[in-house]
Structure formats: structure tokens, C-alpha cells
Amino acid sequence: MSILFKLRFFRVLREISLFFEYRSQIKNEKKSSSLFEKFNLRIDWIGRLYTVINLPPEVTESPDLPKDSRPAFVMEEIKPINDYLKQIKLEELVTVGFEPIKNTNDDSFLVVYYFLFREITWLWILRTIAFWSIAAFAIKYFFFS
Fold this sequence. Notes:
alpha+beta, 4-stranded antiparallel β-sheet, 6 helices, 4 strands, 16% strand
């Protein structure tokens, strides 16, 4: 188990360094790229990219179009952003999520691109904390009592 733990630990360290590279790259893109401003992308303090997509009136006011089909129009609207992320080589590091903004009658959607952690999970964090807690307790109990 010790060897597996070490290997996973190094993969987690690599993922953390990838996250910091991702954050520095999106900060540099914000400063230097006109496309960042064109797509109205913003960055929050965690490093997520987000923007608001407003659906056109022909989509929101059409009686023939059900509200369930609106996410398909959002996906069409974010295709240029996805191409931009592919151009700056971030498409493999991020994943997208979107949801309707409250009090807009589902006419506007919040689109969030966030870093996808593959190695760091809540289960891994809890297991690591439990492992080191038990190890510290065992060392204190068996060697210092």
C-alpha cells in the first residue's frame, strides 16, 4: 500500500502544479487576448472562467420551442469559447457547466468552465487525513507513552 500511496501522492502533486499553471495561463490570457474580452469571460478567485449567455428573443418568445430545448442553444453559443480554449490548449483541463439564472425566466444562463481535478477527490482527501491521523496517534501511543 505504501508504494501505491506514494504514486498517487506524486500524481496529486502533479495535478496541483497543473492547476497553478492553468491559473497563470488564464490570467495571462485575460491580460493579453482580445478574444477573452470578446467572449466576455471573467475569472473568479478560485480560477473558474464564467460568462453569461443571453438567449435571443426568437428563442425565448417562440411558442413552438419548449423550454427544455434551451440548453441546446446555449451549447451552440459556447462553441466559439470551446474553440478558443482548444486554441490555447486548455480543453483537456477544464469542464463546463451551465444553469439558468434565477429571476430571468430561463432567458439567461450562467456558463462556468472550471478545472477538472482527476486525482484529488473528497474521498482521497478524507482517506489521507484519516491515514495520517491514525499514523500520528499510533506513533504517539506506541513510542511516546
